[in-house]
Specification:
With 769 residues, this protein is mainly alpha-helical. Helices cover 55% and strands 6% of the residues. The chain contains 37 helices and 6 strands. β5 and β6 form a beta hairpin. The protein is globular and about 105 Å long. 33% of the residues are buried.
């Protein structure tokens, strides 16, 4: 008998085929649905548990098992606690997708919240709050209130966290009720985890107000209960204690005595929080830094010896802050920061940086010897870090500058191009600080420049800087530059081209007969360079200066001679380190090496403002000690050679972000000490925004608010700022919310310009009107 022909593509399936029917369809979800509906599975608890385990496993693998929602809801009626946990987990994962179906399990959850077993009560309440269904709030609130008074500590812990979940679903529900007051009362609970949960929940709910309100009674009660907390609770409590300002020195020492045993904890997070408390408590007592930091050293070094690589890196970043604040305490332990062969690159780099900071008169030779070994490492990044560390040692210790320069010359003789390039970069900075050491490097500079390849443009640019700066002391200086000028067309690095232009022009002023022809060829090449507008513009500027007046061109291009550095480099600004120690210890900001405002969006920052409206508020607003900027160049020239030379323009001013360390007491003292003041009336407004928005607008213009508040129809602000020339401004602004007038009183310390500052304030107020 002949076989029937196969069905044609696109034809309808046979009517009696079960392939497309629900009963005959194969698949994981349909198999599970069939099993959950099976009476045999329902009668066998072990088998039912295995089926539900498979549902959870599929959900974990990313398979959509939401079609089983109704069967899983019916499975919640069980006395098997394991099955109940798994079903609750499923419901919390899919209830927000099917809110109507989620209502089916409310009755069961309500009954479980009254179960005799505290594990069942806590489990039901936790999952009821985790369903993320606002329509269930009317069912959750009475259960939550009852659970907060439950006899079981586990249920109370769960209820406290449930308040936070409800807050994220509907903030008004929590704020309009007495739940916040209940949580404050529960800080006296006998269970440590309940108390720590209350601290965390209140701190998050009160985030917009600056966190949980603290006073002496709360802090001392929490500190007396430290032994009842686990590591997580200790971290939350210590973070709260770090924000507390003791009323007297006796209280300060009492708090430190209570915190001292916490330093012996094996948990790194707890120890760092405790160290942060000590740092905050002694922030205004520099005479105690050596003694306190000596006590902090041993726990920190012990943790570093036992931590894994990731934890070790975090500890090293925090150790860097402590070394910055009190270097002499850690100086004797420099051997603890020698690198090991099996450590990751991030740890090695951090240790090398710390070695450079810990170098002292007695340990510098050992540290330089160690850095010599690291410079020949097979990892180029570590070798470069070791060379940079050598420059840091030279910059910090003048007595070791000769040894560091000798070591840099050794690096220049190594066969690796990246080592030579980095050594030249460091040597450039070292010689700018110690120009008397240039005799060690300059004689062989031409050879070093010729040995660098095109992959190291920064090193070649550094060598060209040295040639232009001290070319009169290098006999072959013009002949070092000539090959580069002839090969200008093949040069691809903009940095090298710019450095070559400057070096050739500077050398021309020192050795004109030998360099004049080369400079003409170089300017001709650069003026026709279409690859970089920077190079072309710089060449055009030099050409016009030279054509107008050679003497003026020399003073503009050469600048100060010698080009030496007095004091620290601008890149060594320690303002960020100060803020990290005082404001962000044991946070992610320490690992990033940036202050929180640089990577946390403004909408997610906690407000931390003084509560008092007077300038005598005890809440310090700590910012950075901004170093005074370099003095402006006094001489100015008519570069275009016009006949009427205009007088020198006044130096430009702008407000800087870092206004210095200004507290309420310091503000009041300076305000009383400065007698001269500028009073004026600003016609802006009416200002319709509140004090918070005015604060934010002024802060965006780098005007910092010391205290603010509203009295009747007037907004009163005490503000301060610092400009780019180092002048400090203190001001009082009284803003009328009903009129268009603002009374502004400005006092300046230094060569400040009250009119300039008033213009900045006026700009901010106009934006708020």
């Amino acid at each position: 008998m002949a076989q029937p022909p196969p069905p044609r593509r696109g034809s309808a399936p046979p009517q009696n085929s079960q392939y497309f029917s629900e009963q005959g369809k194969k698949g994981e979800v349909n198999e599970l649905r069939t099993l959950l509906r099976s009476p045999a599975v329902e009668r066998d608890p072990k088998r039912k548990r295995e089926v539900i385990k498979k549902v959870i496993a599929y959900m974990t693998l990313g398979i959509d098992v939401s079609p089983l929602f109704s069967q899983m809801v019916m499975s919640v009626e069980t006395r098997d606690l394991v099955v109940k946990k798994m079903v609750y987990h499923y419901l919390c994962s899919y209830a927000h997708e099917q809110p109507e179906m989620g209502l089916m399990c409310v009755n069961t959850l309500q009954r479980d919240c009254s179960n005799d077993d505290p594990m069942v009560r806590g489990l039901a309440l936790r999952n009821l709050c985790s369903l993320r269904l606002p329509i269930l709030l009317e069912y959750i609130q009475p259960l939550l209130r009852g659970a907060l008074k439950d006899r079981s500590a586990y249920v109370r812990r769960t209820a406290v966290m449930g308040v936070l979940k409800v807050y994220h679903m509907d903030q008004s529900t929590v704020r309009s009720s007495d739940l916040i007051d209940v949580l404050y009362d529960m800080l006296r609970d006998t269970d440590g985890m309940v108390v720590s949960n209350c601290v965390v929940v209140l701190d998050e709910i009160m985030l917009e107000e600056g966190g949980i309100a603290i006073n002496k009674a709360i802090v001392h009660h929490l500190l007396s209960s430290l032994n009842d907390f686990n590591e997580w609770g200790l971290c939350a409590t210590l973070k709260l204690a770090a924000r507390y300002s003791p009323e007297s020195d006796d209280e300060r020492f009492q708090v430190m005595n209570v915190l001292d045993p916490v330093l012996r904890t094996s948990n790194a997070g707890v120890v760092l929080e405790a160290i942060g408390c000590f740092v905050q408590l002694t922030k205004d007592l520099p005479e105690l830094h050596a003694q306190v930091y000596e006590r902090l050293k041993a726990p920190l070094l012990t943790l570093m010896s036992k931590s894994n690589n990731e934890g070790l890196y975090c500890l090293l970043k925090h150790a860097e802050l402590l070394v910055f604040r009190c270097r002499e305490v850690f100086a004797s332990e420099y051997r603890q920061f020698y690198i090991r062969y099996d450590e990751p690159a991030c740890v090695k780099h951090q240790k090398v940086q710390l070695l450079a900071q810990l170098a002292s008169e007695s340990s510098a030779e050992d540290i330089l010897s160690e850095l010599r070994e690291y410079a020949s490492d097979c990892d180029p990044s570590l070798a470069k870090a070791a060379i940079r560390a050598t420059g840091v040692v030279a910059s910090r210790l003048r007595s070791k500058a000769e040894a560091c320069c000798s070591l840099l010359v050794e690096f220049l003789d190594l066969e690796y191009s990246y080592v030579k390039a980095e050594a030249l970069l460091v040597a450039k900075d070292v010689l700018r600080k110690y120009p008397e050491r240039r005799g060690d490097v300059l004689p062989s500079l031409g050879r070093y420049l010729g040995e660098l390849d095109a992959e190291e443009p920064q090193g070649r640019a550094a060598a060209l800087f040295l040639v232009g700066q001290w070319g009169e002391e290098i006999p072959s200086a013009p002949y070092v530059l000539e090959p580069l000028i002839d090969a200008y067309a093949t040069e691809t690095s903009v940095d090298v081209k710019l450095a070559l232009l400057t070096a050739t022009c500077r050398l021309f002023f020192k050795r004109p007969p030998e360099v004049q022809n080369m400079l003409g060829r170089l300017l001709d090449h650069a003026l026709e360079d279409q690859t970089s507008s920077d190079v072309r513009d710089k060449a055009l500027l030099y050409f016009r200066l030279l054509r107008r007046d050679v003497n003026v061109a020399q003073r503009v291009i050469s600048g100060r001679d010698p080009c030496s550095i007095q004091g620290a480099f601008a890149e060594d600004n320690c303002a960020v380190m100060d803020r990290l120690v005082d404001e962000a210890f044991n946070t992610l900001a320490v690992v990033y090496g940036e202050t929180p405002d640089q990577f946390v969006d403004r909408a997610h920052r906690a407000r931390d403002k003084p509560t008092d409206e007077d300038v005598t508020s005890e809440t310090p607003l700590v910012s950075n000690d901004a170093p005074p900027p370099a003095a402006p160049v006094e001489d100015s020239f008519d570069l275009l050679g016009s006949e009427d030379v205009a007088p020198p323009a006044p130096p430009s001013r702008s407000l800087v972000e870092s206004a210095g360390s200004v507290t309420g007491d310091l503000f009041q003292a300076k305000w009383a000490a400065i007698s001269d003041q500028d009073e004026r009336t600003l016609r802006v407004g009416p200002v319709t925004q509140g004090a918070d928005l005015v604060d934010a607008m002024l802060a965006s213009l780098h005007v910092h608010t010391m205290a603010s508040g509203q009295v009747g129809e007037e907004l009163k602000f005490f503000v301060y700022a610092r400009d780019s020339l180092g002048a400090l401004y203190l001001a009082q602004a009284v803003i009328s919310t009903a009129s268009m007038e603002t009374q502004l009183t400005v006092k300046t310390e230094g060569a400040g310009d009250a009119s300039f500052f008033a213009g900045v304030v006026e700009e901010g107020l106009r934006a708020c009107s």
